[in-house]
Specification:
Rossmann fold, ATP-binding, BCA_ABC_TP_C, alpha/beta, four-stranded antiparallel beta sheet, six-stranded mixed beta sheet, binds adenosine-5'-triphosphate, 23% strand, 2 domains
Length: 261
């Protein structure tokens, strides 16, 4: 079994134990074991088809692993896509995934959907209205923390891509997750926006949230991650600090000569 070794004294966060996923005859993940301790940022790298998205999909319960199991904060974890927020898990998507017909504020409030009780809200009872107001206030706080509260009333289509990326991140952070999955957050961003994003990502673990960063921008991974795991054809071929990974010839081979440091 392939292990990601971590300091056993660290708070547990997410633990993947021997995760295997097979699609028919194809093994997309092959007995991957990986610890993402609370308060740490772990990067997942690997060439196209290595199994990164499949790993995220297993963590989000999109499909169950063929073998292996997950733990979150020291307890067995069977993720369900419709209960992710309640489980303390939030995810950003490749691209934006924002609702075009909703304002920025409404998009971020949607990140609290698991906390709403739609039936009551539709009745517009005083308690439900107060609750809606509380959710909107939390969404505004999330937007403010990323410096984009001024766009709350705008529709995403009218905004620059970099702003929309921050809105998508605010939607993930508004539920104050225990585990944040970032799926190529730097995709489509220019150099300055990526630098700003790096600063934002570094602040996320301060309250104990674990972060998994899947990203093709190797520089960003190396800059913000505490540890990096590298997948190739579904196998965990390397793990360690960014410096260790940057110097690993097996990683350079997996990337077919692409420089990694
Ligand atoms: N639902 C599916 N059914 C069948 N095969 C799948 C499915 N999802 C992924 N695969 C296959 O599993 C392997 C891993 O794919 P995955 O999308 O996880 O890789 P990736 O590392 O995310 O790649 P990329 O960087 O291109 O997004 C690939 O060979 C892919 O074709």
């Amino acid at each position: 079994m392939q292990e990601l070794h971590t300091d056993q004294s660290e708070p547990p966060g997410l633990r993947l134990d021997g995760i295997t996923v097979r699609f028919g005859g194809l093994t997309a993940l092959d007995a991957v074991s990986l610890d993402i301790p609370a308060g740490r940022i772990v990067g997942i790298m690997g060439p196209n088809g290595a199994g990164k998205t499949t790993l995220f999909n297993v963590i989000c319960g999109v499909f169950p692993p063929t073998a292996g199991n997950l733990q979150l904060d020291g307890h067995g974890f069977t993720p369900k896509p419709h209960r992710l927020t309640r489980s303390g898990v939030a995810r950003t998507l490749q691209g934006l995934g924002l609702f075009p017909g909703l304002t920025v504020l409404q998009n971020v409030t949607a990140g609290l959907a698991a906390d709403t009780r739609r039936g009551l809200d539709l009745l517009a009872l005083p308690g439900a209205v107060a609750r809606e107001n509380r959710l909107a206030a939390r969404a505004m706080d999330a937007l403010e923390s990323l410096g984009v509260a001024g766009y709350a009333a705008a529709l995403p289509d009218t905004l620059p891509y970099g702003i929309c990326k921050k809105v998508a991140l605010a939607r993930a952070l508004v539920s104050e997750p225990r585990l944040l999955l970032l799926d190529e957050p730097a995709g489509g961003l220019g150099h300055d926006d990526i630098e700003e994003l790096a600063g934002i990502i570094r602040t996320v673990p301060s309250d104990g949230c674990s972060v998994i960063l899947v990203e093709h921008h190797v520089d960003l991974v190396m800059e913000v991650c505490d540890r990096v795991a590298v997948l190739d054809f579904g196998r965990l071929i390397a793990e360690g600090t960014p410096a260790h990974i940057g110097a690993d010839p097996a990683v350079a081979d997996a990337y077919l000569g692409v420089e990694v440091a």
